[in-house]
């Protein structure tokens, strides 16, 4: 039970950090006159980079090493591109079709993005190895899959 609370607490802390990075960059770019689609794209790239590092290390405690880290990173970014598309389509709908404020729209859409990011990270990117997977423990105690 304590481990689950720590896990969810870590996700909450680093999720808030990533969200603040995303929203801050988005708002700064909007205020500088950058179109909302470009602003959200730049904010996405920076925020996902922060999210990968923090989620890998402190939320899901990934022990993958070597070349598998690149596979994990590729999968993480691929999943996040899916939620980026959700973000972008949501913004377009709210701003273009419902004439909502660009920043308020981002806040609304971000709620769905956060939930999707957690679900996809937990069940797709940083999932526990299945029993059929063969793993090796390296000399420094890290888990390495074959």
From TrEMBL:
Domain of life: Bacteria
InterPro entries documented for this protein: GtrA_CellWall_Glycosyl, GtrA_DPMS_TM
Keywords, ordered alphabetically: Membrane, Transmembrane, Transmembrane helix
Main localization (coarse): membrane
Membrane topology category: Multi-pass membrane protein
A GO term from the CC aspect: plasma membrane
Residue span, GtrA/DPMS transmembrane domain: 11-126
Subcellular location, record wording: Membrane
GO BP terms: polysaccharide biosynthetic process
Listed transmembrane segments: 12-30, 36-54, 75-97, 103-120
Family, similarity comment: Belongs to the GtrA family.
Full protein name: Putative flippase GtrA (Transmembrane translocase of bactoprenol-linked glucose)
Organism: Natronincola peptidivorans
């Amino acid at each position: 039970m304590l481990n689950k609370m720590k896990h969810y607490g870590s996700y909450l802390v680093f999720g808030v950090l990533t969200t603040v990075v995303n929203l801050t960059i988005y708002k700064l770019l909007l205020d500088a006159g950058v179109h909302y689609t470009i602003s959200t794209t730049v904010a996405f790239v920076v925020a996902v980079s922060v999210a990968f590092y923090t989620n890998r290390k402190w939320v899901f405690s990934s022990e993958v090493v070597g070349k598998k880290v690149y596979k994990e990173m590729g999968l993480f970014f691929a999943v996040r591109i899916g939620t980026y598309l959700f973000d972008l389509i949501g913004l377009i709908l709210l701003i273009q079709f419902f004439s909502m404020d660009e920043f308020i729209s981002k806040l609304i859409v971000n709620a769905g993005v956060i939930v999707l990011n957690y679900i996809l990270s937990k069940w797709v990117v940083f999932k526990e190895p299945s029993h059929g997977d063969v793993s090796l423990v390296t000399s420094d105690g890290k888990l390495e899959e074959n």
